[in-house]
Amino acid sequence: xxxxxxxxxxxxxxxxxxxxxxxxxxxxxxxxxxxxxxxxxxxxxxxxxxxxxxxxxxxxxxxxxxxxxxxxxxxxxxxxxxxxxxxxxxxxxxxxxxxxxxxxxxxxxxxxxxxxxxxxxxxxxxxxxxxxxxxxxxxxxxxxxxxxxxxxxxxxxxxxxxxxxxxxxxxxxxxxxxxxxxxxxxxxxxxxxxxxxxxxxxxxxxxxxxxxxxxxxxxxxxxxxxxxxxxxxxxxxxxxxxxxxxxxxxxxxxxxxxxxxxxxxxxxxxxxxxxxxxxxxxxxxxxxxxxxxxxxxxxxxxxxxxxxxxxxxxxxxxxxxxxxxxxxxxxxxxxxxxxxxxxxxxxxxxxxxxxxxx
Length: 358
Description:
signal, 6-stranded mixed beta barrel, 4525_t:CDS:1, Cathepsin D, subunit A, domain 1, protease, Aspartic_peptidase_AS
């Protein structure tokens, strides 16, 4: 079944330099190498994709994130009763709410969310899951309040869960509610217009328009991330000769964040590219096409998706940035700059990620 996705609109309160720095620091915190002061929901066109679900018959807008594995929403009067425009969870309004008051804390970007774990009836895309474990947050980083979504639905593998719980999709598989152990994304773009792609998340299958062209790649780790081997990267069809790399596929990250030496290599092949105090800029009118190869199949990043944010003087922020996010020089963090160009499918049973060009 399909979930209609809403795209997070642009945030203009930060400069282009701050936007990149916040994106990098968010990723470092999320993947275990550093600290950050802002969550990923705070800025940028197409930064996040979210949709409606209910917990205990109470409605929420949830960010769909393949880079994490927990479901959480804010409790009524969270952050000591701060004023908020977000939907909040009221245990007293749900006859199916249960908790043993076990504490949890999850770190994303500019801090963390914490509270207690609980269970309740979770509904999404026409499915109903009884006794779904989730976090009911008493404390939420203040920066989350800038985002248009209320909470997060993690779609990584169970082993990554801070709540030590099955994800909703794993429960759908275990209960026999989905015909296939696969969920898939088509991420629309503000530049392309929603109608070009359909902008959807499907639980239990793949859009028929793309199902015949999906090519799968087995996971190369068991750490809970959707991490696969990457064969190479190319610029304008020319191989960069990268070997021994892997990629974490993450809908919750905007950019493609790569080891610093790889970022330098990529941009050395893009005419007019500049390194401005660690942030890569490219000509706004660039015609460069960057491609990634997985399982022997090459997928192009459209030039318009490579151009992220206007930096002035005919330059724009590049959608590929350098950063030691995971602590490894061999791991790329592949976010929406790439994923907007493909239908991406995530096979929980067979531990594989597939792509089909849009």
